[in-house]
């Protein structure tokens, strides 16, 4: 389908209703899910704690997908470097080091820096210096499990290593990481990030956990135990990491929110919730690009490059 942008929406200055998603949200079930559900049903019958531990491990373990040829081509034009992080090093990449302004790209769950190849190329042609990295337990960075706070600390490490950043583009989990914690930018200056782009972003952290729980058909007691564990580990409720709570915490001069009406991973309604909760955010919807193709669509890339200018 051809990508079509709706007009940008300003909140609360504009009063028009947000565009509605044309089709109901459906979470695609992976093959073999029946056996996984049976495992957790048996575990929960024996011990809520055992079921919680197994569920949390699964929740925090990304798959390392095989690298595709187009990814190798994208990285072949980049300068690879490493960023020290918590006893190890993150894999990072830089394109166009002489670019006039620096844009950091933060990938989503089970993605990696190479997934930004087409997007990075569009920003290079617009004259930007582009940096991307593999998050913990992703790509060529170490680790087997990771969490939102750890991913955020990794993003902070890359930002501190780079110095001044003009803009950040975060996709999905990367958007939640950047704005939900939030990451601190340009500490040597006034702390303001000139441009922030959130793509395919989940609006509610508890909703993400609930989708995971619904997929596995976890009992409510296990879901509640996950919530308590997050509070114990971070000192914060899961809801405090939600992007619907982020507006007052993110010192960004301008923020652009992009979401596809037919996103198969994050419901479009969550983008609407973010837009309603974030005064001044610029909201653009697409149709037919889903959760990932939005990263490779030339119309989207051009719109982001213009926003970053």
From TrEMBL:
Q: Which GO terms describe its cellular component?
A: membrane
Pfam families membership:
Abhydrolase_6
Matching entries from InterPro entries are given as: AB_hydrolase_1 (IPR000073), AB_hydrolase_fold (IPR029058), AB_hydrolase_sf (IPR050266)
Gene Ontology BP annotations: acylglycerol catabolic process
Q: Could you tell me one molecular function GO term of this UniProt entry?
A: monoacylglycerol lipase activity
Keyword annotations from UniProtKB, A to Z: Hydrolase
Task: State the name under which the record lists this protein.
Answer: Alpha/beta hydrolase
């Amino acid at each position: 389908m051809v990508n079509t942008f709706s007009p940008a929406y300003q909140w609360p200055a504009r009063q028009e209703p947000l565009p509605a998603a044309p089709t109901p949200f459906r979470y695609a079930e992976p093959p073999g899910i029946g056996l996984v559900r049976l495992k957790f049903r048996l575990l929960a019958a024996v011990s809520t704690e055992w079921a919680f531990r197994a569920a949390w491990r699964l929740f925090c373990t990304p798959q390392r997908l095989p690298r595709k040829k187009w990814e190798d081509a994208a990285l072949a034009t980049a300068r690879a470097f490493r960023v020290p992080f918590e006893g190890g090093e993150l894999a990072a990449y830089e394109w166009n080091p002489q670019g006039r302004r620096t844009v950091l790209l933060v990938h989503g769950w089970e993605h990696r820096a190479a997934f930004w190849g087409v997007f990075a190329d569009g920003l290079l042609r617009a004259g930007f210096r582009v940096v991307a990295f593999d998050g913990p337990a992703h790509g060529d960075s170490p680790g087997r499990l990771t969490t939102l706070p750890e991913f955020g600390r990794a993003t902070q490490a890359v930002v501190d290593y780079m110095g001044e950043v003009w803009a950040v583009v975060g996709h999905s989990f990367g958007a939640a990481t950047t704005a939900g914690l939030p990451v601190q930018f340009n500490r040597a200056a006034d702390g303001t990030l000139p441009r922030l782009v959130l793509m395919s972003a989940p609006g509610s952290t508890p909703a993400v956990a609930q989708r995971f729980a619904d997929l596995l058909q976890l009992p409510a007691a296990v879901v509640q135990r996950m919530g308590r564990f997050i509070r114990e580990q971070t000192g914060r409720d899961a809801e405090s990491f939600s992007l619907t709570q982020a507006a007052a915490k993110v010192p960004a001069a301008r923020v652009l929110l992009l979401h596809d009406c037919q996103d198969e991973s994050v419901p479009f309604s969550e983008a609407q919730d973010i837009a309603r909760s974030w005064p001044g955010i610029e909201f653009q919807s697409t149709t037919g690009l889903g959760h990932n193709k939005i990263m490779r669509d030339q119309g989207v890339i051009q719109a982001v490059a213009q926003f970053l200018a």
